[in-house]
Amino acid sequence: MEPIVWEWVNFLVRWLHVITAIAWIGSSFYFIHLDLSLRRRDGLPPGVAGEAWQVHGGGFYNMMKYTVAPPELPEKLTWFKWEAYATWLSGFALLSVLYYHGAALYMIDPAVLDIPWWGAVLLSLGALGLGWHGYDRLCKSPLGKDDVKLAAAGFVFLVLVAWGLSHLFSGRAAMLHVGALIGTMMSANVFRIIIPNQTKAVAAMKAGQVPDPALGKQAKQRSLHNNYLTLPVVFLMISNHYPLAFGTRYSWVIVAVVLVVGAVIRHFFNSRHAGKPTPWWTWAVATAGVAVIVGLSAAGTRTESAAAPARVELAQVEFAQVEEVVLSRCSMCHAAQPVWEGIGAPPRGVTLDSAEAISRHAPQIRVWAALSDAMPPGNVTGITPEERRLLAAWTDQLPR
Ligand code: HEC
């Protein structure tokens, strides 16, 4: 019964997380577009920096932006914060349900660092807390006065985190945690900087004072970071379904490239929304970046790099050898009736308990267990690099 309950908790929390993230990213994309499309004209009310006309849902909207604050506060003011908070809370719930509860399978890779489940949970919490703190310090340091220098420092910081995490966790958890840290930074930007600053501005207005423009400037900087991090964070969140991204030797370098690819694509849209000359070069950079990622993902597993770099040529692998590896390393979970504790049904519907089933799943076996070390999760059944190479050689021979 228990695995069935966990499976559904996982599914429902994920559903919630995707919905809240859509709400957050949707409103964020909307406001970025609105902000960049504002235009000045004569005759705008005092304090208005620009306006935009939009048509949607059968009506016309005339949007105006007061940069510091309107002369008088309206009675009803809509705040945008729960999308961000709910995304973080549901994301943390999902992290707990999937990774903390399933630490042995999803977080710990004994070949990387052999730690108990609570050690993995502490490392995860520490990475999120310290990571946010480090980023916040960077923004508040003298570097924070220059957006470009800060972006460069932030990039180096995130790449170092990705590299560090790849020495603590399984490939899958390492990549997901870079995403979780970026998500935490983005939500904390809303929770700790943007909303408090806006609250202070509103309080100043109510007291009949002009709000400090520095508050708005700081909020805008964090908002800019959130804008450029949106595409990379989504890549990192869905990466755990793609073993070539997370389970290969240079996964942490892939993170670095994704940060660039996501940011330049975002830049393309930002420039267009702002009516600036279209930066077509961004697509050249993005395409080159993706090509680099694809190339890096073919470099093999992390264990392979440590154990034996040379690829063994297995001219003719006997199917019986393959069958033995799969039956002894995979079928305890991937069977109609799994015998591994906590696995209630064959994961993702993949059964690997007969010669026929193994042959049918050859392409998936290649991606999940030969080209990457995604399976077995946390290498709980102790597959060896030689066995992975055997699987690689077998799937190499198969007709495509
Ligand atoms: C301890 C149990 C366990 C063992 C052992 C195991 N797997 Fe898995 N496998 C899983 C789980 C759990 C998932 C689902 C992962 C997820 O949620 O992303 C999975 C997913 C997969 C998938 C993904 C299907 C898809 O397209 O999403 C493939 C392929 C796979 N395993 C192959 C293997 C191979 C090959 C082996 C042996 C080398 C193996 N597994 C060993 C538990 C196991």
Question: Please, could you describe this protein's structure?
Answer:
The chain is mainly alpha-helical. The chain folds into two domains: 2-227, no CATH class; 303-397, no CATH class. It contains 15 helices and two strands. The protein has helices at 2-37, 82-100, 103-106, 117-140, 147-165, 171-206, 213-238, 243-246, 251-273, 281-297, 302-307, 319-329, 355-360, 362-370, 385-397; strands spanning 48-56, 59-66. It has a two-stranded antiparallel ribbon. Helix 12 (319-329) packs across helix 15 (385-397). 33% of the residues are buried. Mean pLDDT is 93; it is low at 306-310. It binds heme C. InterPro entries: Cyt_c-like_dom_sf (IPR036909), Urate_ox_N (IPR010389). This is Urate oxidase N-terminal domain-containing protein. One of its GO terms (molecular function) is electron transfer activity.
